[in-house]
Design brief:
Keywords: Aminoacyl-tRNA synthetase, ATP-binding, Cytoplasm, Ligase, Magnesium, Metal-binding, Nucleotide-binding, Protein biosynthesis, RNA-binding, tRNA-binding
CATH topology of the largest domain: Phenylalanyl-tRNA Synthetase, Chain B, domain 3
Catalytic activity: tRNA(Phe) + L-phenylalanine + ATP = L-phenylalanyl-tRNA(Phe) + AMP + diphosphate + H(+)
CATH class of the largest domain: Alpha Beta
Oligomer: single chain
Number of domains: 6
Main location: cytoplasm
Strand order of the largest sheet: 28-31-32-38-37-36-35
Strand content: 25-35%
Subcellular location: Cytoplasm
CATH superfamily of the largest domain: Phenylalanyl-trna Synthetase, Chain B, domain 3
Largest sheet: 7 strands, mixed
CATH architecture of the largest domain: 3-Layer(bba) Sandwich
Shape: elongated
Structural class: alpha+beta
Radius of gyration: 40 Å
Subunit structure: Tetramer of two alpha and two beta subunits.
């Protein structure tokens, strides 16, 4: 928000307050000031001149020789190349020795053999941006008003001696997106009440606005307030210089007197208005509704836009003539032929305006204010002041009354706060008189019941709804710099990590010990990637207004983000990758009672490339399923869950290789998966063969982990027996190990698979698996008879369950 210091001075007495002091004080009270700009800085010796004579240059087809009155006894000759220079106009003249924008110095010289004593300037040469210069002067010089005195500095005429204060307005302080809002804010700081000199409305009672037009609002939720005023017999022309310069200093291009007034009211009240050419509406009906499929509108920027069913449009009863709150239509815009104006003042649904603005990529001062909020109490007043100004500056007559399509009922907002509560929050010792004075200067009406203030919040401060908001207002006006600075009091207690935090740290240390590096990925991703590698069914949690489509949905897995990291590294020739990530995923149940997604802590691991790098004595070893499984086995053993974890082959995950994927179970509960990324998915990510695993870390934290029990090393020797089995290839090692463990007896200490063979001398569909079983008795030496009995039980059980052949 750009604030004109001179404009603000019309409402408050700032004669003893400099723009710098004002900006410092505003920053101290909570509205950040980005900077102050004085348009005339760096410029000098630029005056008003009058062209008394203008003839073509004899040696040029585009230059003119002008005799200019600059307030001196003799006329000054200046050669000018502007196409719109002519006799009888007043212009901006840079004298010899002057400086224009860009620190460029103007000297006396010759152009094509003719003396030129300076330069006749355009607004661009004074530092104005092309985007704010009136189109009539964008390709040439600017005409000064006839009442400007020859030889006077131009800066006061163009308000270039003003101080433009740039405010950084946070979303909760949208009330400061208007000059009136800023005036109330500054008035509270300096204990003044702003006085506004709004134009008075005089209506022609011989006619009624309802005779000209009728208004219908289809859904008052979309359009809580909508009204039209009619101004007849207007004459479209340039706005007076004061209005043009005021708009240009605020970053808005002057168009004509009617349009400029609507923009002026936008800045003054923060209330967007729109002016229609009544005759071009070709109807006496205004219908505000949602768009229909197939409808189109040509907007003021000349673009043809297809209207969606989510867009609120203003129609003439049949076809759209404006996009509500965003931009008007070209077919009904104000032009030089306009004689009757239909002036719209309304309140539109902020979410719908935001959607329309995003859909058409149209961001405007109007849409920004509708999105952030406007003062609902001044919707009608802003339209009345605008109508009065149109009558004054465009010679129009305001038709009596206004046509109302919908009207909002203001609800009184009452908030209570006690003096003790304020002091407890702020650490102050303010008394009743101090707090009362602050509410008075803010313009908040209140009653006092004992020590409690019952405050009625004015509609212009719609951001205040709870007790904490009032306390913040008191703190701002009292002065943050006046609040006491104290050190914390009370006992200090040594902090400690929770069991879950300790376990997470231990897991990180274990994985890093296995050679993995921690990665941190974005929690936001695309909808497609969010639904990959999912461990449970869930609805998608989408942002209403994402910054980009790539970051529009909350993730429901960690693997897709880690695969993006793999792709990033592979593209940069880093092919040996071991990454892990601990982070939250977001699930959403189809339950109307649950508005927020459920967050679950997960662990993701991804391996790609070689486990062992080739050197002079070692062959390179690529990572495989068992590399990542080994990392998980180390993890589970270290946290005391090794005996409770089982792996079950699965083909359910479409994103994983159907023959190299397993579910990870803690007891009977699935807590994750492990496997190779499916080749088609790997191709989409542009990565080589990659192995991944994802675990529900919260389930591991919540599990009752067995405490580590240290046992004395047995004094008696261990005995190992090998057993070779011929089994169907569909039988898994996990199944065989479970049967062996169940029937081998209490002295079994470990089972080790040391050979798997398929090929020559093995029947098709069969495989040979060899295990080494280790037995230990901590109390006595085992004898062959005990071991033989255990092995017989194991062999018998294997034959019964899997029809194995003992080799």
């Amino acid at each position: 928000m750009l604030v004109s210091y001179k404009w603000l001075s019309e409402y408050l007495d700032l004669s003893k307050i400099s723009a710098k002091e004002l900006s410092d004080q505003m920053s101290l009270t909570g509205i950040e000031v980005e900077g102050i700009e004085v348009p005339e800085e760096g410029l000098k010796k630029i005056v008003v001149g009058e062209v008394k004579e203008c003839i073509p240059h004899p040696n040029s087809d585009h230059l003119s020789i002008c005799q200019v009155d600059i307030g001196e006894e003799e006329l000054s000759q200046i050669v000018c190349g502007a196409p719109n220079v002519k006799t009888g106009i007043k212009v901006i003249v840079a004298l010899p020795g002057s400086r224009i924008t860009g620190n460029q110095k103007i000297k006396k010289g010759k152009m094509r053999g003719e003396v030129s004593n300076g330069m006749i300037c355009s607004l661009q040469e004074l530092g104005y941006s092309d985007s704010v210069i009136p189109k009539a002067y964008s390709e040439g010089i600017y005409y000064m008003p006839t009442e400007a005195v020859n030889g006077d500095d131009v800066f006061s005429y163009l308000d270039m001696d003003d101080h433009i204060i740039e405010l950084s307005i946070t979303p909760n302080r949208a009330d400061a997106l208007s000059m009136r809002g800023v005036a109330y804010e500054v008035g509270a700081i300096y204990r003044q009440t702003p006085e506004f000199n709004d134009a008075e409305l005089n209506e022609d009672t011989s006619e009624q606005a309802t005779d000209y037009i009728s208004v219908e609002v289809e859904d008052e939720k979309d359009v809580p307030a909508y009204q039209i005023r009619v101004i007849k017999d207007v004459k479209i022309a340039e706005s007076p210089l004061w209005l043009q310069t005021r708009l240009m200093n605020e970053g808005i291009r002057p168009i004509n007197n009617v349009v400029d007034i609507t923009n002026y009211i936008l800045l003054l009240f923060g209330q967007p208005l729109h002016a229609f050419d009544y005759d071009k509406l070709a109807s006496k009906t205004i219908l505000v509704r949602r768009g229909k499929a197939g409808e189109e509108i040509v907007t003021l920027d000349g673009e043809t836009r297809k209207v969606s069913e989510e867009t609120i449009v203003i129609t003439n009863g049949k076809v759209p003539v404006a996009l509500a709150g965003v931009m008007g239509g070209a077919d009904s815009e104000i032009s030089e032929e306009t004689t009757t104006v239909a002036l719209e003042s309304a309140l539109f649904d902020s979410l719908s305006v935001r959607r329309t603005s995003k859909e058409f990529n149209l961001r405007s001062e109007s849409s920004s204010r509708f999105e952030k909020g406007i003062n609902r109490a001044t919707i009608g007043e802003a339209g009345d002041v605008a109508a009065a100004m149109i009558a004054q500056l465009a010679g129009g007559t305001v038709v009596s009354g206004k046509v109302i399509g919908s009207e909002i009922a203001l609800e009184e907002v009452v908030v209570s706060v006690s003096i003790s509560r304020i002091n407890d929050y702020l650490g102050t010792e303010m008394d009743q008189a101090t707090v009362s004075e602050i509410f008075d200067t803010l313009g908040f009406a209140y009653t006092l019941a004992q020590e409690t203030f019952i405050v009625t919040v004015p509609p212009r401060r719609w951001d205040i709804t709870i007790e904490a908001d009032l306390i913040e207002e008191v703190a701002r006006i009292y002065g943050y710099d006046n609040l006491p600075s104290t050190l914390p009091k009370g006992e200090t207690v040594a902090g400690s990590l929770t069991t879950g935090q300790l376990l997470v740290r231990k897991i990180k240390s274990l994985l890093e010990g296995c050679g993995a590096s921690e990665a941190i990925s974005y929690a936001l991703t695309t909808e497609e990637k969010s639904r990959q590698f999912m461990m449970r069914e869930s609805l998608t949690t989408s942002l209403q207004w994402p910054m980009s489509e790539d970051r529009s949905v909350l993730r429901m897995n960690l693997i897709s983000g880690l695969l993006d990291d793999v792709a990033y590294n592979v593209a940069r020739k880093n092919n040996n990758i071991a990454l892990y990530e601990i982070g939250r995923v977001f699930y959403q149940d189809n339950d109307p009672k649950k508005d927020l997604p459920y967050e679950e802590n997960h662990l993701g691991i991804v391996l790609s490339g070689n486990e062992t790098v080739k050197d002079w004595q070692t062959k390179e070893t690529p990572v495989d399923f068992y590399t990542i499984k080994g990392m998980l086995d180390v993890l589970f053993d270290s946290v005391g869950l090794g005996d409770k974890i089982t792996y079950t082959a699965t083909k359910e995950h479409q994103e994983l290789h159907p023959g190299r994927t397993a579910l990870i179970k803690l007891g009977d509960t699935i807590i994750g998966f492990i496997g190779q990324v499916h080749p088609t998915v790997a191709k989409e990510y542009e990565i080589p063969e990659t192995y991944v695993a994802e675990l529900n870390l919260q389930a591991i934290i919540d599990a009752e982990n067995d405490a580590l029990v240290y046992q004395q090393v047995s004094k008696f020797p261990a005995i190992s027996r090998d057993i070779a089995l011929l089994v169907d290839e569909a039988v898994t090692s996990q199944e065989l190990v479970e049967i062996i463990s169940k029937h081998a007896g209490k002295y079994l200490r470990s089972i080790h698979l040391f050979d798997v063979y398929q090929g020559d001398n093995i029947a098709e569909g069969k495989k040979s698996m060899a295990y080494s079983l280790t037995f230990v008795n901590a109390e006595a030496t085992l004898v062959d008879e005990e071991i033989n009995q255990s092995m017989e039980k194991v062999e018998k059980a294997l034959v019964e369950h899997f029809d194995v052949t003992i080799r």
